[in-house]
Amino acid sequence: MHSLNNLIIEFYDKLSSWEQSVVKDTGYSLAQVHTIEVLGSHGPMRMKELADRLGITTGTLTVQVEKLVQFGLIARTPHEVDRRSILVELTSEGTALHKHHNRMHLQLTEDITRHLDPESIKVLTQSFEKMNREF
Amino acid sequence: MHSLNNLIIEFYDKLSSWEQSVVKDTGYSLAQVHTIEVLGSHGPMRMKELADRLGITTGTLTVQVEKLVQFGLIARTPHEVDRRSILVELTSEGTALHKHHNRMHLQLTEDITRHLDPESIKVLTQSFEKMNREF
DNA sequence: ATTATTTTGTTTGATTGTCAAGTTATTTGG
DNA sequence: CCAAATAACTTGACAATCAAACAAAATAAT
């Protein structure tokens, strides 16, 4: 248990470094790419929901979104029913960035699991499912 | 493979959120606790090495270390042989914080793995070992 | 041995990400 | 209909960060 704990911490650290270097290559900041990632994997959403998912305040997000709009990565559209709200969604350019980032992640997953046999991958997948449910 | 990739991303996100909330409770910042963590798990080291492990410049670290010294969490001692260098190490208070954080991590690992049978934990541990080696 | 280069840590100035608090517009509940 | 809650924005203040310039010391080259 103790060793598994250390392995998880090490895994997290290495994933962090990897993410940082991959993001740097895009020319955008970590916060910016993270925003694109969330929008890409969950689809268009209101500012409030996006802020919650990113773990930041809406005030911070307002500024961040403004930049991303100027970069042409995302677009703001009024909410159909709630006129207080704004829907934020990826532009085609934003979608392209998300897909690119996704491919990087997939490649990494393939790279780090290449010495695992099919049975281990199966157990690993099930274990991640169970662990993610417990957070 | 595709689903495993998504599970890893989800796992990373959840671990991130967890870390953020645990760190917030300590009253110190994420960067500060991270510095304590590295010093706690690897022992005293030079500024340069610490900066490299944290993925920041020595300039940034100089400022950060100054604060942590004022908080009484770490101490600076001259390097025995290289007079350009400074050794940074945890004080007893810093060690206490590290131990506390470590206990939190261990508790989390126990919590998220509680529905895994011993055999799965074994495979999971071996898989993490192999994956960490491939980064 | 002397000089040039590299390494280590610090300082400074600029930029980014962040929050808290206050504001406005809108929605919801009594 | 009015009060309270919610959504987004604005502003002012910090934290964290980097790059560049610097000084001191170690290392390499000649």
TrEMBL record, chains A, B:
Domain HTH marR-type stretches: 1-133
SUPFAM superfamilies for this protein: Winged helix' DNA-binding domain (SSF46785)
Highest rank taxon of the organism: Bacteria
InterPro entries: HTH_MarR-typ, WH-like_DNA-bd_sf, WH_DNA-bd_sf
Keywords linked to the UniProt accession: DNA-binding, Transcription, Transcription regulation
Protein name listed in UniProt: MarR family transcriptional regulator
Species, as recorded: Shewanella metallivivens
